[in-house]
Design a protein that fits this description.
By secondary structure, this protein is an alpha/beta fold. The chain has seven helices and six strands, in the order αββαβαβαβαβαα. Bound molecules: 5-O-phosphono-beta-D-ribofuranose. Catalyzes the conversion of N5-carboxyaminoimidazole ribonucleotide (N5-CAIR) to 4-carboxy-5-aminoimidazole ribonucleotide (CAIR).
Length: about 180
Amino acid sequence: QASASAAGALQGAPLKGTAPGPAQVGIIMGSQSDWPTMRHAAQTLDALGVPWEARIVSAHRTPDRLQAYAKTAQGRGLKTVIAGAGGAAHLPGMAAAWTALPVLGVPVESRILKGRDSLLSIVQMPAGVPVGTLAIGRAGAVNAALLSAAIIALSDAALAQRLADWRAAQTASVAAAPSDEP
Ligand code: RP5
């Protein structure tokens, strides 16, 4: 259990998606500046009808909030945590240290090093504390949402069907040939 002081650090209402019911995916990010990337995960979960919550949780600026969030995540009904951060991106790894839930890390593109720093900060976890690391930026955020849906769909047949439909629609949307139209 989180200590009383740590639990108290988890204040304020999270942002929520359009799907009804308690959040199944927790989307956390180190800064407001990560939201333009992480909102792609949220939008993908909305498209699949997966309820999510989003909070700003920084490993460096709000460490007590991180501890409280990760320690209470499973008990609050979350099934996965998507953690996005840029630069010295310790958020996914520290979240994984505090929860047994699957943690999916999204390296956010940083201004100076273009996200290579974020990627290397997230991907090289020591054996024993896994973080599923995705691609830098939007692709990583979308795929973290799809992986979360796939994990939850293992015990949710209706979601499995929605995920299959989503993939079929994606396949159908790919043109047979390139076009000169802009
Ligand atoms: C990280 O530092 C955040 O995840 C963000 O990607 C980066 C920069 O944060 P800001 O200075 O824009 O708040 O903690």
